């Protein structure tokens, strides 16, 4: 904190820093490599905007299926989860640095800690700011990455606010239209 400014009380709880989560999507082999293991992907579909991903969450206590759009130009991974119980939110947006290699067959997602939780048509909020600050203090991300993450998150929140918290409305204003209608295998 800068001299003369009080520490924010109760706003950013002490967070144990963790290294950046880096995921890899191998579209050739239909494999999603995460920090917790390698999982089979049901569908990878390249789109004009990026990559669509759909896969089940095996043995997860809350989530049964995941769909996502990796959007490199926006610096976001837009996620839609199907929960075992009541829907917790409509969309979860990860601020990330997304790259491709091997002629677009391998996608790498470097999660930049900040996320947005969207209740479509109702509200949106930026979360995990404490994780970003802790990661910066630990040297896991650069000052440039912190600035980039904050700019992406605030640009997204401003756009969602202008679109009355409609993800489709904000994406349309950005010139994008995404398909979320994927049926899970029985």
Structure notes:
The protein is an alpha+beta fold and 186 residues long. The chain has one domain: Beta Barrel (FomD barrel-like fold), CATH 2.40.380. Helices cover 20% and strands 38% of the residues. Strands 1, 2, 3, 4, 5, 6, 7, 8, 9 and 10 form a 10-stranded antiparallel β-sheet that branches. A hairpin with a 4-residue loop joins strand 6 and strand 7 (76-83). Helix 2 (143-162) crosses helix 3 (167-173). The radius of gyration is 17 Å and the shape is globular. The relative contact order is 0.16.
Question: Would you spell out the secondary-structure blueprint of this structure?
Answer:
Layout: E1 22-26, E2 31-34, E3 37-40, E4 43-46, E5 51-56, E6 63-71, E7 76-83, E8 91-101, E9 106-119, E10 123-127, H1 129-138, H2 143-162, H3 167-173
Antiparallel strand pairs: 1-2, 1-9, 2-3, 4-5, 5-6, 6-7, 7-8, 8-9, 9-10
Helix pairs in contact: 2-3
Mean pLDDT: 89
| CATH architecture level-2 label | Beta Barrel
Head-to-tail CA distance between termini: 53 Å
- State the CATH topology: FomD barrel-like fold
Secondary-structure element string: EEEEEEEEEEHHH
**Main structural class:** alpha+beta
Kindly provide the radius of gyration, computed on alpha-carbon positions and rounded to a whole number of angstroms.
Answer: 17 Å
Give the fraction of residues assigned to helices: 10-25%
- Determine the CATH superfamily: FomD-like
Count of individual beta strands: 10
Strand portion, in percent? 35-45%
Largest β sheet strand count, sense and barrel closure:
10 strands, antiparallel
Count of DSSP H/I helices: 3
Seen as an oligomer or otherwise, the chain set is single chain
Q: CATH class, please? A: Mainly Beta
Question: How many structural units, i.e. domains?
Answer: 1
Overall form: globular
Task: Report low-confidence residues grouped into runs of 5 or more.
Answer: 5-10
């Amino acid at each position: 904190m800068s001299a003369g400014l009080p520490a924010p009380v109760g706003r950013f709880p002490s967070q144990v820093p963790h290294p950046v989560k880096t995921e890899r999507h191998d579209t050739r082999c239909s494999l999603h490599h995460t920090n917790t293991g390698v999982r089979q992907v049901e569908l990878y579909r390249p789109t004009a905007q990026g990559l669509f991903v759909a896969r089940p969450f095996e043995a997860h206590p809350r989530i049964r299926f995941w769909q996502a759009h990796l959007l490199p130009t926006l610096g976001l991974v837009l996620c839609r989860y199907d929960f075992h119980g009541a829907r917790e939110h409509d969309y979860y947006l990860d601020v990330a640095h997304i790259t491709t290699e091997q002629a677009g067959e391998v996608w790498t997602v470097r999660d930049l800690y900040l996320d947005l939780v969207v209740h479509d048509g109702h509200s949106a909020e930026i979360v995990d700011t404490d994780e970003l600050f802790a990661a910066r203090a630990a040297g896991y991300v650069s000052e440039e990455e912190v600035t980039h993450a904050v700019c992406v998150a605030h640009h997204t929140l401003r756009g969602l606010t202008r679109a009355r918290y409609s993800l489709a409305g904000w994406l349309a204003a950005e010139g994008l239209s995404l398909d979320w209608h994927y049926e899970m295998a029985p």
